[in-house]
Design brief:
It contains 23 helices and 20 strands. Helix 2 links the parallel strand 2 and strand 3.
Length: 556
């Protein structure tokens, strides 16, 4: 029998977080949160990271979650504190990132009476979370927090929201039995139905040009080795979605890159020539399929932990509900040995694709990039990859910076992230800080535009204060470049509302205690990147780039 303990409501929340192994809570304190803040003061195991804007708190929690696979936690006060969370929480939902959002509300007796800063937090956050709950009874606190972690991590991960009235956080005590997380949530892997696995194995065994399209579910289930082993067994080409980047190592001989809204010429060819497509941990959502305009092969094997995703957007030949890693291992064991003729056909295809990949890379990265002015985005990506360690974590921003980062080769799981499904600007810098706090042993770099940086630039001070050094690669085109290019492409050259003045971002960074410099000459770029990466402090490198490379006209 576990001995019960007695805590205030705020103390009970913090005790549950501590038992879950939560090392950080990101947020902005407010009057209603003080019951939780006081409990955090007495809990040295959890570090409160004060941010300048609640949106950044959600993004930092998201970055922490994507870097670790464990829930990131953010805390805000009532009303405007809660509304500021919405953008970051929406990003976590659309990219299946486990985040626990905690809001503190007014006193229960004052709800629905037009109290100061009043807002219906549950109504606000319900559509952007897997679960949103108001707790007004102190006895429900331990169960609610445990349930939040269960739901955030269960099935397809995502954000959940808990809202607590102020009085139960401060002036009351709850008696409860503390539990180890393994007593209320499981970590088992769901196997696929044996009959469906056998059907899929028969289809794969006869495939002449099989392809595996891996999504974020492969990262969630830590299934990289299992998926690569399956690909090697059947000589399948490997593609990823944007959210699946890093699920397979980019330098594996069967890997050809990412295919989503902006695929490369080679990844599009890989899909077009496939006779069997294994869609694994990949929901085939709008960003992945260019709003469902991508044509799939006639034979599709879809594997997903969420049964609602199987067949939702495209018909399948075989659908298997299960964990990506578990099902991949089942298929590897079930597929028939290759006969010599089929093996030769498959390997000849891979050989030709590798040649095409090499040719494509030589066209994307020609030698003259190193002297072209203004600096080409492609050259920045090439030089950045060369300057970073293999296991560095790279965070792409919304818009053009995130699109150009598709050219970066990513070699390890959970070393790349960007806001894919929600396209939330202001993500990259705070998410990079969250990732750095999660993985202090790694170099962390964010690639961000001047539009997005303007929405989160004050968090440079957070990185400096919290000793979480990040390398900020600013792709500076003096405006909202992605939208300007869309206007120029589709509206007869007319554009409006997309230009900024020339801002001295390095000076602002220095004002926050970071280092910074601007680069306009491509010959100076490699040395500048080396300096920024090697400085081991928060460093903003303002790279003025050529705005004429239009992502709306097939840049890859």
């Amino acid at each position: 029998m576990v001995d019960k303990i007695k805590q205030t409501g705020g103390g009970a929340i913090v005790d549950c977080l501590k038992r879950e192994g939560v090392p950080f809570v990101f947020g902005v304190p407010g009057g209603q949160t003080l019951g939780i803040m006081d409990a955090l003061y007495s809990t040295p195991e959890i570090r409160f990271i004060t941010v300048h804007d609640e949106r950044a708190a959600a993004h930092m929690a998201d970055g922490y979650a994507r870097a670790t696979g464990q829930p990131g936690v953010c805390l805000t006060t009532t009303g405007p504190g809660a509304t500021n969370l919405l953008t970051g929480i929406g990003g976590a939902l659309h990219d299946s990132s486990p985040v626990i959002a905690i809001t503190a509300n007014n006193r229960g007796r004052d709800l629905a009476r037009d109290d100061a800063q009043e807002a219906d937090h549950v109504a606000l956050l319900r559509s952007l979370t897997k679960w949103s709950l108001l707790i007004t009874d102190i006895d429900r606190i331990p169960h609610a927090v445990r349930e939040a972690f269960r739901r955030s991590l269960g099935g397809s991960p995502g954000p959940v929201h808990l809202d607590f009235t102020r009085e139960i956080l401060e002036s009351e005590e709850v008696e409860f039995a503390p539990l180890d997380p393994l007593q209320y949530r499981t970590e088992g892997r769901v196997q696929g139905d044996l009959e469906q696995v056998e059907q899929a194995a028969v289809v794969l065994s006869a495939a002449k040009s099989p392809t595996i399209w891996a999504g974020r579910g492969v990262l969630v289930s830590e299934a990289t080795d299992a998926v690569v082993e399956l690909a090697e067994k059947i000589d399948a080409a490997l593609l990823t979605t944007y959210n699946g980047i890093g699920a397979v190592p980019a330098d594996h001989p069967l890997a050809f890159g990412s295919l989503s809204r902006h695929g490369t010429r080679v990844t599009k060819q890989v899909l077009a020539e496939s006779d069997v497509l294994v869609v694994i941990g990949n929901s085939l959502n709008a960003p992945t399929t260019s709003r469902w305009t991508v044509e799939l092969p006639k034979k599709v094997i879809q594997i997903d932990l969420n049964p609602a995703m199987i067949g939702r957007h495209y018909p399948f030949t075989v659908g298997i509900n299960g964990d990506a890693g578990a099902v991949a291992r089942q298929l590897t064991a079930a597929v028939s040995p290759k006969d010599a003729a089929l093996e030769q056909t498959r390997r000849s295809r891979i050989t030709q694709l590798r040649k095409n990949q090499t040719d494509w890379q030589s066209k994307i990265f020609p030698p003259e990039l190193g002297t072209a002015e203004p600096i080409k985005p492609q050259y920045l990506m090439q030089a950045l990859r060369q300057s970073l360690p293999r296991v560095a974590i790279i965070v792409g921003g919304a818009g053009n910076p995130g699109i150009w980062t598709n050219l970066l080769e990513i070699y390890e799981p959970r070393t790349y992230m960007k806001p894919v499904g929600f396209g939330n600007m202001g993500f990259a810098l705070p998410a990079a800080i969250g990732a750095k706090l999660a993985r202090p042993d790694r170099t962390v770099a964010c690639v961000i535009g001047d539009g997005s940086l303007g929405m989160c630039i004050s968090e440079i001070e957070t990185a400096v204060r919290e000793q979480a050094p990040v390398v900020i690669i600013l792709m500076d085109n003096f405006g909202y470049g992605n939208i300007k290019q869309e206007q120029l492409t589709y509206f007869g050259g007319r554009y409006l509302g997309v230009d900024f003045s020339d801002i001295d971002f390095p000076k602002i960074a220095r004002g926050f205690g970071a280092q910074g410099r601007r680069v306009e000459n491509p010959t100076e770029l490699p040395a500048a990147l080396e300096e920024a990466v090697g400085a081991n402090v928060t460093y903003l490198l303002d790279v003025v780039i050529d705005p004429s490379d239009n992502v709306w006209t097939e840049p890859f």
